[in-house]
User: Which sequence fits this backbone?
């Protein structure tokens, strides 16, 4: 089946819906989701959205920009961070005007709370910058955008798996994939395509990300010849529920929660004397794993405690109701009485599809455009998060750059005709699906996936080194070979989730290889990328973005400069 | 421990009638029913169809019927059920079954959409640049509604949706309407109330409380439906 629109948006999370809503003012818009649209992973965002509104105390966008740059360990492109911080307040107000139910302070204004790495006056002390709605901020923003999209006629296609970008005469002119319900090819022919497909946390064994976070957008762009930027920078959130990886929002520490080791000590005082438990995530994740490695985990095990027992007031006020219900459901713990066992969990990809400030994809990561192709949100790399994203800077990224992409798409659609698209678009999908369904190899996908996840978690997560990365690279390449010999047991086409599993696993193996390969090249420690064998940041050698492109016999690595405007790189101390 | 599951199976392409299949998986008492289903699909039978995404009760994908109760498979742990008996897993009730545990939710989302007037979501206009003001008390009026994740468990459990009036708009859609009706910033409250006042609307609810009982997010659904009914009466059919 072939559908025709002005613009097709892949992904119905907050970035996709923001761009869709914006573009719908002048264009015919389709939003495609691999799941039902309201199931998108933006809904899991808990803590809030950073914007220097100053509703609680003095704040200004320059401070927000500085914190973003320093939080990203100076790998942030500062012109982009300036856009993010300057436009954030306007976007929050705009969301409020669309109906987003932010929590309120006594003055009736949007309430704000502290969050990791957000400070007043360039690092003096924590500042209340995060606009939030209880601990379900992502959910309510996404739902409000979804409702607005519905009433404004944005067409939503649920349960469509996008496999490829369609490129014709150097321009992007649509996407192809299949409908999960039927297994039949489905093609969207459009003037412009926006990728808003989120991250790929499922590459790792323990993650806060949904099962759907398999990086299909990264893979589609990469396969179409786009270089991926800074893929070695993977964020591990310090407080995943032990064993499950489910997120305990940083809001818990923003409201006063304290991390304690097995001895009951507040260990963050030793790692970040000013911000303590509200230091950036990379620093806290390393601190937790250092405590554990030095024998100070709880009862000699590999977790620490997050203590919220003194926060009865915040809990009564429903500021942490999701968090308290998660630990009740999964651990049987009453957070008002007992500490929560936590350990780092894969949470966010700082890297992704390189774009300019308008969301336009840069095919080579530098200057070469790919007209008609846009990216926004976690799957994009603008780069505002650099080597480590600050909490609550993700939601603001989604709406600031989602909006900008939506605006630019409107203009692009006005000025450009619909391209003819490849005539084999449908048949290429059918061929791929048929060959997977016909596969009879003896490798089991479940085993390959588990081994990939174990390898990435053991050898390419918070602490890395040359030996482990080399072993991981070999292992992932072996797994890719084994994937060539899988056999699907389920042969039907309707809702064949084994087929979807196969396509996702293929994407994840490719991305795992890219992450490991880029991590192996970067011989320094910066933000989330920590090398035991190169423990220092090296600005002379490595203040540059990594670009990984597909070439005939593997991966080609390039680098590009980091834009520094207001803040010269300095030592990163909190 | 060994966990036994009795799973509803139906593939319209190959089966004339639905049937049940039995599986045994190795799982810890603290693992989710969803983990058990994943073990079946990943290790035993790749053809088993069910939806899932976030795995922790936020996305609303894995609503199904577990031991006769509508629930999220990711929110129920093995230890929530009697160890000696099998866990019976079936699709949500009310909705057409598409394959195994997958149901057609288009009618559900159509009804969610139907609560919006054609004018959409119209807010009072804030003065100058800035947010609309709303006190914490005003905000609290609909705080419970915004927990909704549209999992459809409430509709599946509702005796009216099941039998008495299949055209009933259903509890989830009324919660959605309540969220906007009770938001002090929204101007077009009356239009939304009029939609709720239509046949098969909010007034259809008889207060069985089944929705409230099963809601995975603990929303006091019946209470909110009754608040909408009361508001319809006060605003659209006032005492003469």
Assistant:
């Amino acid at each position: 089946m072939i559908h025709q629109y002005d613009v097709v948006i892949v992904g119905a999370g907050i970035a996709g819906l923001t761009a869709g809503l914006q573009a719908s003012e002048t264009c015919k818009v389709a939003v495609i989701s691999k799941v039902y649209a309201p199931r998108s992973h933006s809904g899991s965002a808990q803590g809030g959205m950073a914007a220097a509104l100053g509703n609680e105390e003095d704040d200004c966008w320059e401070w927000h920009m500085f914190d973003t740059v320093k939080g990203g360990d100076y790998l942030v492109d500062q012109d982009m961070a300036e856009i993010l911080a300057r436009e954030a307040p306007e976007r929050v107000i705009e969301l409020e005007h669309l109906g987003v139910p932010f929590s309120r302070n006594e003055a009736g204004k949007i309430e704000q709370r502290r969050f990791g790495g957000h400070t007043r006056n360039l690092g003096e002390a924590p500042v209340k910058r995060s606009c939030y709605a209880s601990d379900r901020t992502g959910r309510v923003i996404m739902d409000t955008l979804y409702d607005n999209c519905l009433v404004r006629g944005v067409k939503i296609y649920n349960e469509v798996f996008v496999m490829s970008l369609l490129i014709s005469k150097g321009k992007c002119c649509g996407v192809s994939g299949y409908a999960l319900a039927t297994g039949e090819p489905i093609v969207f022919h459009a003037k412009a395509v926006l990728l808003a497909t989120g991250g790929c946390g499922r590459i790792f064994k323990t993650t806060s990300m949904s099962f759907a976070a398999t990086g299909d957008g990264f893979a589609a762009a990469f396969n179409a010849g786009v270089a991926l930027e800074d893929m070695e920078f993977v964020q591990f959130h310090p407080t995943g529920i032990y064993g499950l990886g489910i997120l305990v929002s940083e809001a818990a520490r923003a409201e006063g929660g304290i991390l304690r080791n097995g001895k009951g000590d507040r260990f963050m005082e030793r790692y970040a004397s000013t911000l303590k438990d509200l230091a950036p995530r990379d620093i806290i994740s390393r601190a937790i794993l250092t405590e554990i490695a030095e024998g100070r985990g709880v009862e000699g095990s590999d977790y620490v405690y997050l203590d919220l027992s003194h926060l009865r007031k915040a809990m009564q006020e429903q500021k942490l109701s999701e968090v308290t219900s998660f630990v009740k459901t999964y651990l049987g713990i009453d957070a008002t009485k007992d500490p929560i066992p936590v350990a780092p969990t894969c949470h966010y990809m700082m890297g992704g599809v390189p774009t300019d400030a308008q969301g336009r994809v840069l095919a080579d990561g530098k200057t070469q455009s790919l007209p008609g192709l846009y990216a926004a949100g976690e799957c994009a790399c603008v780069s505002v998060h650099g080597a480590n994203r600050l909490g609550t800077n993700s939601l603001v990224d989604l709406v600031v750059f989602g909006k900008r992409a939506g605006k630019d798409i409107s203009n692009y659609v006005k000025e450009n005709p619909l391209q003819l698209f490849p005539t084999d678009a449908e048949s290429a999908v059918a061929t791929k699906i048929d060959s997977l369904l016909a596969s009879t190899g003896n490798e089991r996908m479940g085993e390959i996936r588990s081994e990939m996840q174990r390898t990435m978690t053991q050898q390419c997560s918070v602490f890395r080194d040359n030996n482990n990365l080399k072993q991981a690279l070999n292992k992932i390449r072996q797994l890719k070979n084994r994937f060539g010999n899988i056999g699907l047991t389920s042969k039907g086409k309707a809702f064949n989730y084994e087929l979807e599993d196969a396509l996702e696993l293929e994407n994840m193996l490719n991305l795992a290889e890219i992450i490991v390969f880029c991590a192996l090249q970067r011989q320094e420690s910066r933000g989330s990328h920590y090398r035991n064998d190169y423990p220092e940041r090296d600005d002379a050698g490595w203040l540059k973005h990594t670009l990984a492109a597909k070439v005939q016999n593997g991966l080609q690595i390039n680098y590009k400069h980091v834009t520094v405007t207001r803040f010269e790189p300095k030592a990163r101390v909190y | 421990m060994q966990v036994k599951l009795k799973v509803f199976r139906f593939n319209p392409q190959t089966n004339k009638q639905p049937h049940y299949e039995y599986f045994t998986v190795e799982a810890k008492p603290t693992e989710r029913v969803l983990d058990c289903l994943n073990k079946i699909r990943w290790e035993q039978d790749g053809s088993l169809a069910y939806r899932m995404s976030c795995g922790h009760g936020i996305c609303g994908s894995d609503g199904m019927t577990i031991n006769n109760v509508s629930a999220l498979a990711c929110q129920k742990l093995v230890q929530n059920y009697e160890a000696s008996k099998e866990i019976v897993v079936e699709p949500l009730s009310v909705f057409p079954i598409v394959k195994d545990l997958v149901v057609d939710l288009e009618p559900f989302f159509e009804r969610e959409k139907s609560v919006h007037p054609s004018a959409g979501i119209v807010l009072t206009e804030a003065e100058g640049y800035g947010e609309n003001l709303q006190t914490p008390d005003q905000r609290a009026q609909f705080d419970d509604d915004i927990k909704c994740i549209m999992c459809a468990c409430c509709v599946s459990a509702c005796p009216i949706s099941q039998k008495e009036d299949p055209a009933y708009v259903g509890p989830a859609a009324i919660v959605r309407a309540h969220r906007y009706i009770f938001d002090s910033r929204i101007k077009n409250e009356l239009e939304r109330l009029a939609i709720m006042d239509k046949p098969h609307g909010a007034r259809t609810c008889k207060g069985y409380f089944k929705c409230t009982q099963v809601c995975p997010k603990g929303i006091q659904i019946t209470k909110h439906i009754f608040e909408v009914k009361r508001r319809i009466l006060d605003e659209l059919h006032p005492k003469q």
User: Anything to note?
Assistant: DSSP finds 16 helices and 24 strands in chain A. Chain A has a mean pLDDT of 96. The radius of gyration of chain A is 22 Å. Chain A has three domains: 2-156+348-415, 241-344, 425-561.
